[in-house]
Amino acid sequence: MARPLIISDCDGVLLEFCDPFIGYLAQVHGLTLKLETFALAGNIRHADGTAVAPEAFPALLDGFFNTHMATQTPVAHAGTALARLAEYCDVVVLTNIADHHAVMRTSELARVGMPYRVIGNNGPKGEPIRVLLDEYGPSHAVFIDDLPPHHTSAKKRVPHVHRLHMVAEAPLRHLIPAAADADARIDCWAEALTHIETLLKGPAT
Ligand SMILES: [Mg+2]
Question: Do 67 and 82 reside in the same domain of the chain?
Fold first, then answer.
């Protein structure tokens, strides 16, 4: 019998990203990141206040994942909510991260109680979600992500998948407005679990 499929982002949904990344920038590079707007690349500064060129951002992010991924702590209630869902759902983590980092991410998530399949992606998520639907043939599918463009991409490619916009990191909540292309905005996993379980009791998608 077909099972429901939960497709979740990782950074900012399952694992805290901002505080650990800010810590890495300060400790390793002597840089600061103040989240005054949701533009990570444009808000990183040297000690003298000058902005770090946006071109330097990918290398900083890569360095963070190389050496500091283990500093990312779980988002509150994410582990228990997913464990509950995993009793009767398939769970896949779809994360925009390079393939070699996805291997480490798999073990890091397992280490903190989220032992799920991890797929490293690059770019919009609509198409990889479509591929997962082909593979699993689920009864219902729910997609959870903190970034609005991924909901837009999912709506275009797989409009029947329920799209839950979750900004789990408190410092980002007021910087990221509700995604227009998501079906719901819920920033807390305890509430999201209730929402998802209600959906899963409804008609198959
Ligand atoms: Mg994210």
Answer: no
